[in-house]
Amino acid sequence: MSSTSQKHRNFVAEPMGEKPVTELAGVGEVLGSRLESQGFDKASVVLGQFLVLKKNKELFQDWMKDVCGANTKQSSDCYQCLSDWCDEFL
After folding, report:
1. I need a surface site. Which of 9, 41, 47, 84 has the fewest CB within 10 A?
2. What confidence tens digit (pLDDT) does each residue in 10-40 have?
3. Long-range contacts of 56-60 (CB under 8 A, 24+ apart)
4. Can you list the domains of the chain with their CATH numbers?
5. 38, 68 in Cβ contact below 8 A?
């Protein structure tokens, strides 16, 4: 497995709860505010979209690019974070 950020490890280490969207790996303040303005205010709402897209990396990355202008690294980090969280908790 590739190395992950501390933010990624922290997110995957515990249940989602009411975590803000900015706790997702790859999502900082700028992307977070863009996601929030589109109604994706919690990490769990982004997880819902991830599941709707059937955990498909390409579709999820395209969605992030369209919704909040995420670049490839940001959307890839977020995808991996959610994928690893699902492996741990679902």
Report:
1. 9
2. 999 999 999 999 999 999 999 999 999 999 9
3. 57/83
4. 6-89 (1.10.150.40)
5. yes
